[in-house]
Known about the structure:
The complex is a heterotetramer, with 2 copies of chain A and 2 copies of chain C.
Chain A: H1 3-28, H2 53-60, E1 68-71, H3 76-82, H4 86-93, E2 111-112, E3 117-119, H5 127-139, E4 146-151, H6 158-169, E5 174-180, E6 183-184, E7 187-188, E8 209-212, H7 217-233, E9 238-243, H8 263-269, H9 272-283, H10 288-311
Parallel strand pairs in A: 1-3, 1-4, 4-5, 5-9, 8-9
Antiparallel strand pairs in A: 2-3, 6-7
Chain C: H1 2-5, E1 8-9, H2 11-25, E2 29-33, H3 49-53, E3 58-60, H4 65-77, E4 81-88, H5 96-103, H6 106-109, E5 118-124, H7 139-144, E6 149-151, H8 156-168, E7 172-178, E8 195-196, E9 210-213, E10 218-222, H9 226-239, E11 244-248, E12 251-253, H10 257-267, E13 270-277, H11 282-293, E14 303-307, H12 316-322, H13 326-338
Parallel strand pairs in C: 2-3, 2-4, 4-5, 5-7, 6-7, 10-11, 10-13, 13-14
Antiparallel strand pairs in C: 1-8, 6-12, 9-11
Helix pairs in contact in C: 2-8, 4-5, 9-13, 10-11
One thiamine diphosphate sits at the interface of chains B and D.
Amino acid sequence: MDSKQAVFMYEQMLLIRRYEDQMAQIYTEGKSPLFSIAAGPVPGEMHLAAGQEPVAVGIGIHLRNDDAVTAPHRPHHIAIAKGVDLNRMTAEIFGRVDGLSHGKGGHMHLFDPQVHFSCSGIVGAGFPPALGAALAMKRQGSDRVAVAFAGEGAANQGTFHESLNLASLWKLPVVFIIEDNHYAISVPKSESTAVSRNSERAAAYNIPGVYIRDNDVVAIYEAGKEAIDRARRGDGPSLIEIETTRLYGHFQGDAEAYLAQGEKDEWRHHDPIPRFRDLLLANGWLDSATDQDIQTRVNARVDEAVGFARKSPEPMPEDALTDVFAETGKEAI
Amino acid sequence: MDSKQAVFMYEQMLLIRRYEDQMAQIYTEGKSPLFSIAAGPVPGEMHLAAGQEPVAVGIGIHLRNDDAVTAPHRPHHIAIAKGVDLNRMTAEIFGRVDGLSHGKGGHMHLFDPQVHFSCSGIVGAGFPPALGAALAMKRQGSDRVAVAFAGEGAANQGTFHESLNLASLWKLPVVFIIEDNHYAISVPKSESTAVSRNSERAAAYNIPGVYIRDNDVVAIYEAGKEAIDRARRGDGPSLIEIETTRLYGHFQGDAEAYLAQGEKDEWRHHDPIPRFRDLLLANGWLDSATDQDIQTRVNARVDEAVGFARKSPEPMPEDALTDVFAETGKEAI
Amino acid sequence: MATETSRKLTMARAISEAIDLEMAADSRVFVMGEDVGPYGGIFGSTTGLFTKYGPNRVIDTPISESAFIGAAAGAAAEGLRPIVELMFVDFFGVAMDQIYNHLAKNHYMSGGSVSHPLVLMTAMGAGYNDAAQHSQTLYGLFAHVPGLKVVVPSNAYDAKGLMIQSIRDPNPVMYFFHKGLLGLGWMPSDDRAVVTVPEESYTIPLGRANIVRDGTDVTIVTIGAMVHRAVEAAEIAAVKGISVEVVDLRTLVPLDTGTILSSLKKTHRLVIVDEDYLSFGMSGEIAAIAAEQALEYLEAPVRRVAVPNVPIPYSRPLEQAVIPSTPRILDAVTYVTEF
Amino acid sequence: MATETSRKLTMARAISEAIDLEMAADSRVFVMGEDVGPYGGIFGSTTGLFTKYGPNRVIDTPISESAFIGAAAGAAAEGLRPIVELMFVDFFGVAMDQIYNHLAKNHYMSGGSVSHPLVLMTAMGAGYNDAAQHSQTLYGLFAHVPGLKVVVPSNAYDAKGLMIQSIRDPNPVMYFFHKGLLGLGWMPSDDRAVVTVPEESYTIPLGRANIVRDGTDVTIVTIGAMVHRAVEAAEIAAVKGISVEVVDLRTLVPLDTGTILSSLKKTHRLVIVDEDYLSFGMSGEIAAIAAEQALEYLEAPVRRVAVPNVPIPYSRPLEQAVIPSTPRILDAVTYVTEF
Ligand SMILES: Cc1ncc(C[n+]2csc(CCOP(=O)(O)OP(=O)(O)O)c2C)c(N)n1
Ligand SMILES: Cc1ncc(C[n+]2csc(CCOP(=O)(O)OP(=O)(O)O)c2C)c(N)n1
Ligand SMILES: [Mg+2]
Ligand SMILES: [Mg+2]
């Protein structure tokens, strides 16, 4: 990692954090005094990824526009690190016509084919399509790669097993990233997973498996580079599990009564962003003026995206009937 | 293994072999001159397990009537070793009213609740219900155990992964047996499975995994004993993969064009039954007079079952409408 | 006595109370699913049960629906009485083989010798912008494959009585609760679902529809949350002098064909209101029954109000456009009346 | 020329020939599934393709349907044109989430920006005693969820033209072939499915029903193998002086409502023949269309001949009792005629 990369990653982490914090705020609009998931400019479930920036950024830095990524129900950080159009993504989350899907998809269904990004609200569902993208890339003779992100809870879904086996068998250029944020909604990893680290499961598929502790963006960068280079070279898939933290609740509105006393404070004190900032400062890769510039730029970027979304009109009711099928759409009814 | 057990196992292996050979014969009845799967007294698919007797017998010997077993689409050997009523099982395969399911189930759907046996035609589907049986046993405070049998092809189905994880997590009294007969229909294990031995996958669930080479009934007995004792003691699940051979085709009618030249001859020459007989003779646990008696007994037993089946009437068409729901069945239409 | 009979409950409370009563009465009953433990079920179906019965009877699971639903079936066959939660019915596809090839068919395939007394409860329904993978009803699909009873309560009273009946049924029962009827507080909920619920245990037989409003001019056949939309439409229609009978089916399997037919023989006009996709589902089945068994009584074409064969969109105006609404129902009622 | 136009093919050969032509014409097309390679597909849908195109374009898979069907969807989104085989449609439950929550919905959820041009071909149908997990049709279930085209050919000519069209369609297409129409040799097969098939490439548009027999007294609407049972019943009815029109829908999505309605406006009587389960499926949908859009033309109650809501039993007399038969169809025809 050189200083340019490091600063870029830092800026991306800030962008993600700012985005999620803003989203948390906006999400409350129109929902008070009583919290109602259906009210306000951004309704529906909202799964924020503040705290998980190192995962998205440490992997995303190695990816090109033409590489493919599948993300789970908690997708913003990964989308941003993949370079998804932030304005259109935000408009989508607002359910507006200028959204990536013109308001049909929403927060769990962001698709940006320009950068080969997609996500799904079904746990574990992103593994197979990532395989498929990798299969296409391999058949097309390119050196593109696919990366599937999923939570540690998703690693107990059947698709994980089937996909890792198939990826290894066919030596596909795909990397599996498990974000171990300790919980699947309220269920701790220890109550869902018979091994403490999913990386141990890599051996069951004859592929490399790495566990990265401590939400460490530098280690993620390194492991990500190795795995992605390997895939690009045609040497097949890898599995990386990354310990990270979920600084908001599972979804906005989650009271998190299932957390132990103080558990969350620990995570907050161990916030990966100030830790990375300190490292950059210590290395002399960042000074506080630049840091200030970055903060300003990042805030402006998020404001722009939110402004874009707010300005965009709502879709017309009759638009609900199009896009079931490609081409004419007239078969929709 | 003492001599009594050994001779019992030998007799069971012979019974299974005789049964499968007879079934292979009967299955052709009414199907010539042109092979038609739908014709004759035994229609539908027919998956025979000749060659796989050591698996069923080496595990089954450790099971009690009140232990539960789930078997796959190739179930006869396992059913016989579990003590399923042979007459009613055969009548079921003939589709007759005295069949276990009065003709509703057939060869892939044998259910004998008396000995807690069931099977399914869906690959990999037997893992979850075995878990459930084990969960019930554990909750009921008994020392009963459940055993799920499946082919090596089934180990790449998502249910394998989900079930092994859950079994380990909840320390359930269940044993997973994978019959590695080298093929899933025409697809060799090397083209379906990213590791050479599924037993290596046990580590992914933090449970013991054993591979048994060479269709060796003595080794199966030993490994089965250890795993089943362990489960009975409350120490949790195990995974055993067993190398075995499929002496008939995948199903009757399979031309097996996908096999290499001579591949099958090798399996035939390595038939586990004469090998076990030789061992028993060498140990002095069997003499040829006893062997003769056993053969006679076994043949008579199969003849009785087939006779029972043939004598049993076909079900009445209107019986098709009952048994959708328990109790009255009147909701069936 | 007045206070006793007037205790009103939300549907979520009615469900958890029903489960509680059966767990207290029958030690074979237990609950399993994602976040059913300390969390109390994402939609509150198991609130309070973990505290009362502990982790051995209220069991959190990994996100392994095939394994734990299949395990529930296996446990039921061995004498337990599992209640298993599939968090959203939209997720059925990860476990459908265990559900429909095994849970639903084993009793038949075993010639009646194996039973799976089990409740598979699951959340359904739209109205809060959760988009295409979290907003469906899909009960028609489960009613299509033989072997599952299909229960869809529209209010707290029915929810409790039908849940207790479902737990006691010797068959697998799919029990659907509409998220927008539960009274969760954090989600819009229909006040009409909050009704008086007796404290004691009671059952409602499966297969008996409820005429929630008598009428003479038009029959609306519906289920779940749409019952309340239909009643609203009926109330408005009444002002215009149209008398609408609203039939709440309550269960799709068994289906109370008798009640549908006798209502039709009275009103001669049929509107079906269904939150499921329009084609090849519940609305078609009800219309078919009319066309087969009440054709000579029909004085107007049948009208169906359902989701127009599109996935549920996210954005509010789009979602509202596809979910059957009171005005759309009223249009259909007017159409069949004026025909 | 006489020989050219009279080349008859089995449906299995017609399917593999269609795939062959498209593979030759378009290098993006490839086939994936269990035993599609050297074995040539359990039901012969890929016979000869492995030899011709090799293991890179005719790919055997592990028994991991979620992974390989989901992978096919992912590959389609990245520009390939996969044909993926689900060996029996009865197995859909192990992969349904990839099929209906993703393959079927992604185009909509992405607002049209993601496409999955993909054919999911699968075997269906009963008649050879393979029991409840290997004998279903289930097309109604896939027609119910929006986003999948549903193709069900009844003969070799249609099979080829519809397959080529399906491969070229920009959407996911579920292509069902009935095992009892394939001409496999080792399974009973309807000779009526073996018809003249041109050697060259041709397409049949999806959404266009075929009137396989003209008639004036009764319309039978049907699909797949039941087309031939319906024609048999029509032939017998003709002897009795009843003129039966047989409509082969060929595709359920899109559904050719126009052809159904114009036939009904001519005959005024409707029988629906469906090898799927009776309730909440195709037969209900067709009846509903009649009750909605042709009620005034109906001179007799609609009759449905389908599987009577039981799993498919194993034993021959039981199976034969539940699969719609020519006599049962004839009874329905007689009923609606004499009404
Ligand atoms: C198949 C399926 N089962 C259950 C759910 C409900 N659900 C949504 S997110 C979630 C927890 C996921 O946990 P994890 O994979 O660890 O991701 P995290 O939320 O921690 O990022 C669950 C159970 C779902 N969406 N899909
Ligand atoms: C989910 C599912 N996919 C595919 C099939 C079709 N099928 C039946 S048996 C079989 C091969 C099974 O191989 P294996 O598990 O090794 O068992 P074996 O036949 O060798 O005993 C296949 C693919 C099925 N029954 N179920
Ligand atoms: Mg997590
Ligand atoms: Mg095998």
